[in-house]
Design brief:
By secondary structure, the protein is mainly alpha-helical. It has 14 helices and no strands. Helix 1 crosses helix 14, helix 3 crosses helix 14 and helix 4 runs parallel beside helix 7. The longest helix has 36 residues. It is globular. It starts with a helix and ends with a helix.
Length: 281
């Protein structure tokens, strides 16, 4: 009896220890970033990164980061990109999934297998050919080219939509068609509203990836003045003579605020969408 109680106590201590350790690892960079954002350049150079700032009301780094990194343009560009990419990805992914799940035709399985194969390929391995295609189509250094590129790399959402479609009875489609509804009507009026959990899940996954995407934005949006995004704006504070971490940390906090506000306001819908997205299929 005592042995069982001891094992239970050890297991409980181990669980709390791992939770505290994971929380500490996750929060340490954020806390360090917040502390650094309120320090002056001289103060940052002369103190430890975890030393508290002398003045918590020092907002010079935030105003400096906003102006020097041209963050108003960066936020506007990121908003345009995010909205276009999400709408395009949701429509393309759901339409492709509708065709693949509802219509049986020669090559259906081959197309699904090719999508699966595409997810296994590392993105960096295809950059030379992708860059050549973008160059030939004159889409480098344009927002529309970057938006098309981001919309065309979302295979995961197609599989999420396919899983949801396969849980919706086909009899629903057949009833609507017997009442005179077209295939487009069936998709937009009947099936698409039923895909809300899948849409929320895809929007979260795609939205976070697009908002934080740095590599392709830096490669294909080469005009760092007018085509800067949130992810690439802080690159201005790095250089061969050193990095301005007080501005970088202030900029990181500014870029985190929109995502944090959206999460706080929509956390109920986000948790619901992710939970249902994980259960389906």
């Amino acid at each position: 009896m005592n042995l069982a109680k001891t094992k239970k106590t050890i297991w409980k201590v181990f669980k709390y220890f791992t939770l505290i350790l994971a929380s500490f690892i996750a929060l340490l960079p954020v806390v360090s970033c917040v502390i650094t954002a309120f320090k002056s350049k001289k103060e940052y150079a002369s103190t430890n990164v975890m030393t508290l700032p002398e003045n918590w009301l020092n907002f010079d780094n935030f105003t400096g980061a906003w102006k020097q990194a041209n963050m108003s343009t960066a936020f506007l560009n990121s908003l345009i990109i995010l909205v276009c990419v999400l709408i395009g990805s949701i429509l393309i992914g759901s339409m492709l999934a509708y065709v693949l799940s509802r219509f049986k035709f020669p090559g259906n399985k081959l197309v699904r297998d090719l999508f699966l194969f595409a997810t296994l390929l590392p993105g960096i391995a295809m950059q030379v050919s992708v860059y050549q295609i973008m160059h030939d189509l004159n889409l480098i250094n344009t927002l529309i080219g970057y938006i098309i590129l981001m919309m065309g790399t979302d295979v995961m959402s197609i599989y999420i939509f396919i899983q949801f479609f396969e849980n919706i009875p086909v009899s629903l489609d057949e009833s609507a068609i017997m009442d005179g509804c077209t295939y487009f009507g069936v998709f937009f009026k009947i099936l698409l509203p039923l895909l809300k959990p899948a849409i929320v899940t895809c929007m979260i996954l795609k939205g976070v990836g697009t908002y934080n995407e740095y590599y392709m934005a830096n490669l294909y949006l080469q005009d760092k003045t007018s085509l800067v995004t949130v992810a690439t704006s802080l690159f201005k504070f790095t250089g061969p003579l050193g990095n301005q971490y007080n501005y970088i940390c202030a900029g990181v906090i500014i870029t985190m605020l929109p995502a944090l506000i959206i999460f706080i306001v929509c956390q109920k819908q986000i948790y619901s969408g992710l939970t249902q997205g994980a259960v389906k299929g």
